[in-house]
Predict the structure.
Amino acid sequence: MNTDLDPRTRPVKIGYLVVGLVFLGLSLTWLLSETGVIEPDGFEWLLPAILLGAGLIGLFASLGRGLLSRRTVETEETAENGEPS
């Protein structure tokens, strides 16, 4: 079954997830700066932290997708053959 065409189960696009998280992090940084919660001196570590965090989340999402697809293939093979491979 091709889940790309099924409107009920739409897979998450990992690239979009990472870009969205970076945008959200930058927006949150701007908001905290404008409200005075953080000082402009603290920006030197925020951008690398945002990029690193979004990248790690993207990495874990792609690893999870790979493990999930491997299980799906093994389940389909077991169902076809009657025995695990």
Residues 18 and 55 are 7 Å apart (CA to CA). The chain has a mean pLDDT of 78. DSSP finds two helices and no strands in the chain.
